[in-house]
Specification:
- One of its GO terms (cellular component) is membrane.
- This is Glycosyltransferase family 15 protein.
- The chain is of the alpha/beta class and 371 residues long.
- Helix content is 41%, strand content 12%.
- It has a 7-stranded mixed sheet with strand order 3-2-1-4-9-6-10. A two-stranded antiparallel sheet has the order 5-11. A two-stranded antiparallel ribbon has the order 7-8.
- α4 links the parallel β2 and β3.
- The longest helix has 28 residues.
- The radius of gyration is 24 Å and the shape is globular.
- The N and C termini lie far apart (74 Å).
């Protein structure tokens, strides 16, 4: 009998301890600290990394941006961060810079270099023609190299090879809102492959032959382009899409709209697809990255418009994301440290949604113009 009572008391104590643990756990997740328990509730975090390309004159700016990113969401999400530099600029990443970046990110940062092949002007190019373009169009060779790198090389870098989801940010950015969710999880839940924040408009005078080259590629590779691809985002109406597919479209047929990719979350399959791979190879042979200033933002937008459906792209509108101190859209939420005014209500280029810019002929619009 004594042995039975002793065993019974032990069971009571164990049950009581377990109940106290449960009460403590649910008390925690009901309070402000619930985010620290999310890893216990999730079976698997997305295989993702955040990456930023550093310019030597923007290192302090990059550290400030890192602090903002960590404070707003990544101290909770804990995604690794990879900081890239061009091969001939590695010496600017001093031990002091590394120490500060490690402190800000709790040691989740690493450093990598862009290979010379992905950065330097290809040796087959006409150097005099490149020099002439620098004088007439402007934009440095470094800027053009960056556009080329983001257009066709970044996902191939060994430092990013282990990751499925690639989250690009820039050094000159700020998130004005706390981000209480994981944007990558949002893309996954929506079965999307690409996420961005702002629609911007580029100009044709810096890339006068880009639209015609894109159209020529589409004509020669039309068998690779899905019938339901969201081409109306970059081409003006059915007539513009028709001319693009026939290889006769030019700047007058281009909407100018770009998914502004200084904030960009993509699944690597987008860039590794056959259509995008051949698209970049075609543009590379044309030489417009250095003979003109072909931007990575319009090239990504052209490539995505010929390969993805509109439902495979998500536009985030609740992050309070700002680039280079320009006007941005303040969501008007309590978790955002911004006040709506003439600079934060969003200019037309920022408030037009990805769906709206796809034109009525392509979408089923209802009431206020939202798909």
């Amino acid at each position: 009998m004594a042995a039975f009572l002793s065993a019974f008391r032990i069971r009571i104590l164990l049950c009581g301890a377990f109940l106290l643990f449960l009460l403590s756990f649910f008390w925690k997740i009901s309070g402000h600290d619930y985010n620290s328990y999310l890893p216990m509730l999730k079976s698997r975090r997305p295989n993702a990394a955040i990456f930023i390309l550093l310019a030597p004159n923007r290192i302090t700016q990059a550290l400030v941006a890192l602090q903002n990113v960590e404070d707003r969401f990544n101290r909770r999400l804990k995604y690794p961060i990879i900081l890239f530099t061009a091969e001939d600029e590695v010496h600017f990443i001093t031990e002091e810079v590394k120490a500060k970046a490690n402190h800000i990110t709790d040691g989740r940062v690493s450093f990598a270099t862009a290979t010379k092949e992905s950065w330097d002007i290809p040796p087959w190019m006409d150097q005099e023609r490149v020099k002439s373009s620098l004088e007439t169009i402007g934009f440095s060779t470094g800027y053009r190299a960056m556009c080329r790198y983001y257009s066709g090389f970044f996902w191939k870098n060994p430092a990013l090879a282990p990751y499925e989801w690639l989250w690009r940010l820039d050094t000159d950015i700020q998130f004005h809102c706390d981000v209480p969710y994981d944007p990558i999880e949002t893309l996954i839940s929506k079965k999307a492959l690409y996420g961005f924040v702002q629609v911007n408009y580029d100009v044709s005078w810096v890339q006068p032959s880009l639209a015609s080259n894109v159209s020529e590629f589409m004509y020669k590779n039309r068998h690779l382009i899905p019938a339901d691809a969201n081409q109306h985002f970059v081409w003006k109406g059915d007539a513009g899409v028709g001319k693009a597919m026939a290889g006769t479209a030019g700047n007058d047929d281009w909407t100018g709209a770009c998914m502004y990719n200084n904030f960009e979350i993509s699944h690597r399959s987008v860039w590794e697809s056959l259509v995008y791979t051949r698209f970049f190879e075609y543009l590379e042979k044309a030489g417009g990255f250095f003979y003109e200033r072909w931007g990575d933002s319009p090239i990504h937008s052209y490539g995505l418009a010929m390969s993805l459906r509109k439902d495979q792209v998500v536009q985030f509108d609740d992050l309070g994301y700002q680039h280079q101190g320009w006007d941005y859209e303040c969501p008007g939420l309590d978790r955002c440290a911004c006040i709506e005014d003439e600079h934060t209500r969003g200019k037309p280029s920022y408030t037009y949604s990805y769906q709206i810019l796809a034109y009525n002929s392509f979408l089923d619009f209802k009431n206020n113009g939202k798909a």
